[in-house]
Structures are given as C-alpha cells and as structure tokens.
Write a structure and sequence with these properties.
Blueprint: H1 5-11, E1 16-22, H2 27-32, E2 40-46, E3 52-55, H3 60-64, E4 70-72, H4 78-84, H5 89-103, E5 108-113, H6 118-131, E6 135-138, H7 145-150, H8 155-180, E7 183-184, E8 190-191, H9 200-213, E9 216-217, E10 222-226, E11 249-253, E12 256-257, E13 266-272, H10 277-296, H11 303-316, E14 338-339, E15 346-349, E16 365-368, E17 371-374, E18 379-382, E19 385-389, E20 395-397, E21 406-407
Parallel strand pairs: 1-5, 3-4, 5-6, 13-21
Antiparallel strand pairs: 1-2, 2-3, 7-8, 9-12, 10-11, 11-13, 14-15, 16-19, 17-18, 19-20
Amino acid sequence: MKRDLDHLMETRRLDAIVASGHIHGNPPLYYLTDGAALTQAHVIKRRGAPAVLIAGAMEREIATATGMPVILSSRYDYRGLLKQHQGDRLAASVAYLQRMLEDQHITGRVGFYGFRDQGAAYTFLRALDAALPEIEVVGEFGENLLTAARATKSAAEAARIRETGQRTIAVVRETVAFLQSHSVGPDETLRRAAGEVLTVGDVHDHIRRHIALQGLEDPEGFIFATGRDAGIPHSKGTLSLPLRLGESIVFDIYPREAGGGYFFDMTRTFCLGYAPDAVARIYEDTRACQEQLIAALAVGEETRHYQQLACEFYQQRGHPTIADAPQTLEGYVHSLGHGVGLDLHEEPFFGDTPSNTARLRPGHVFTVEPGLYYPEQGMGCRLEDVLYLDADGVVHNFTTYPRELVIPMD
C-alpha cells in the first residue's frame, strides 16, 4: 500500500523516486496520482517527505484536486531549455529533469518508474546518470518498489475492484440471457430470428457492447471460446464457429474501470442445453478443486503451496499436470492464480517456482483459477474467482456469479 512507500524505499536504499510519462496505460503513475485525469505528469518523492506532483498549467485544477502538492511544469521552462540546447531533445529533457530534482533537493540513489519505449528510457537514463554526478540512477528488475507497494490493496482499492466485478458479472448475466434468447435448430446450432446461425463472433460483438454499457473498457480483450478452442487456455475463440448445444464454452472476462483503473478477472465454463459426460467430469473435478483451495486460503501461507495443492488434487483424479509433466498440453497446464489491480496480472503470483517466496497477506486481491484442457477431445474447463484478504485476514469472494455447468435452452 502507499503507506508502505517510505519503508520500501528504506529497504531498497532509495533516497527518492521519480515516476513520469502519460497517465493512461501507465500504472505506476496512475497509482501515485490516484488516477488523476491528467495527460502526463511527473511525481517526485523524497524518502520521508510527501510526493510532489508536477503537471502542466492547462491541467492545474485536475492536479490540485489530487490533494498532492502541485508545481506547474512551466516553472522548469522546457521550451527555453530546448532553445538553449539547439533543439537537442535528449539534452533538454535531461536538463529539464535536473531542474526538478534540484528544486526538490534530491541527491543519492533515485529509482525511476513509469512506462516508456525501452530504447528511449535506456538512452535517457544513461544520459541522466552521466550528467548528474550527485544522482545514482537506480533501475529495478522484477518486483520493483511500486509493484511491491501495489501488491496489497487498501479497503478503498478493494472496493473499486469489487465494483468493477459487479459490473463484470452484469455483463456475464446479460451474455447468458442473450444466448438463451435464441432458438435451436435441428442440428443443435443456435439460430437468430431470421434463421441464420449464431456465431462466436456475434457473441463477441454482444460482449463488447455490454462491457461499454457497464462503463468499463477491455484493453486486454476477453475469451469466449468453444469446443477445441476451450481446450487451449488463451484461445479467444474462432469467430466464425457456430454456437452448439453440448459444447464446452470457456468465458474469461477481464475488463477494467474506464480510464485505466482497476481490473477484474473471472471465468465461467458452461454448456448450452446439456453437458456430455466427459465435460461434466472435468467440470466437477475443477469445481471441487477450486472449492477446496479457497477453503484452504490462509494469511501467511506461501502462494506456491496452493499451486502444489492444485496439482496434487488433479493428479489424484487422473489428470496430467505441469508438476509431473512440465511440457504437457493436456490436463492442468498453468499456474493457479495471480494478483489483480491496476495490471491484470500482478503480485502475488502462485507459480511453483524457487523464486516465488510470496506469502498471502492482508490486502491481497488475487484469483484462484484451476482448469483442465483437452483440446484434442474438443473440450476445456476453467473456473476463476477473485478473492480479497481484508485487514483481519478474512477471505472475501468478489465473484458472486454462480458456478453452473448447464445453461437451460428452451
């Protein structure tokens, strides 16, 4: 959480941090500004001092509304610096940030955050490091300071994720109702009013419209995949395929708040009309696996432990897993879950790897999503809920949509 920033900075021996760039699509800067509707900005924070927001004059009122101390970027006169450096944008940009850092009395080890083209970021930070001997430019790989802070959510952040979840669930309900509104032809395909076959692409169009109607956006897309495609975890579905009774459908939907805010992530698997025995078996195994794992969640437990439990459960039911066959393309082929927040996938992760030392903590918001995949048998299954551990360590399930395999069709 943000209250941990000074502690994290001390642990990582950082004297200050700088986050910059465009706000939209830039979770580090969005996080530090609470999603202020700015075009672009800088945030500079010295350890032990409040973060300062540097923004353009045209957006001064938006910046002021954040409650952060605000400095207008005109104070540092980028245009004048560009003229002084004969149009050399790199030199002017280095001098521009140098003025900001000097204004905030920043020296020592400084961490830099925010999304930018990799080559541009590398070139800029090298030039900055060379030009400012009083500054040591620090880059972090893997879990950096801000992703560590973002791994646990405040109650207000969790409430936003839950609200996004309620809107997401509304899209799922509407999609199911849309499917049920169609007739069924003699070949067990769903038909539109004029008799045309309803396709996966038609359903995708419907989902996109209702995501927008719920005030959400889907920058990562979504999965609505049938039959063999449902057996390939990240197949989004073949748009030309017809909807048929009895086929497994994996519906994985992960929109976020409009404007680049908090994500949600849920998956349901269902069959229209009836479920073949083979699909019913993998579904019941997956539902039992998920229920057992959610019941076992506890603060302080290693996240990789739950991946181990999932593999053991599926192995006991006769399914291959990546624990006993790492290259398998059938059975249980992925890790159990991930954190959810300003990124769709963030800390904590649940992979069973030696580098994963994460333990469940109050404030974590994360998915539990076991699944089984048999593409050559034309079927797949995944169930995914979003869980929240509150300040007292109590588990809350934000995914209130039921787990039912068969959707009745008239």
